[in-house]
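Changelog-linked ticket: adenosine monophosphate example.
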Amino acid sequence: MTSIFTQIIERKIPASIVYEDNSHIAFLDIYPFEKWHTLVVPKKEYETIMDMPEDEYLELQKIVLQIAKHYEKILWCGINVVQNNKAIAGQSVFHVHFHIIPRLDNSKPVFFESSEKYWENEVDIYREKLSLLNINS
Ligand code: AMP
């Protein structure tokens, strides 16, 4: 059974994609801790980073950093980058992913209990702005 993220990569289920290349994809988290909470995922379905060859891990990190810096510039706020590992921090999808979580509201804990909600059309309006597709082409 393929992971939910592979199903997104294969366009079997929808997602708001902000970046994609041959080996990586980034899309908005469906239950965002904060607006524009984004997941960066290698297309190869590794369970955890421990399974990844170093070069692929470093390539993934490059993309994570690029997106985090882009969001910082566009959103004008601090950006947290989090990687859950099943042994330590309750990873729930067993396909490597990094969370990029903008800190738009400093008064809230990063891992807030309830999800943020987007207003109608907000994702479509901002996705193009947040997208890195333009940057790398
Ligand atoms: P983790 O607990 O680190 O494994 O996080 C998995 C993340 O995947 C959670 O933040 C979920 O909200 C997110 N997620 C699960 N299904 C989807 C989906 N279909 N589209 C986008 N994000 C998802």
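Closing comment: Example verified and attached. The pocket of adenosine monophosphate is lined by residues 4, 13, 15, 29-31, 39, 84, 90-93 (CB under 6 Å). The first strand starts at residue 17 and ends at 20.
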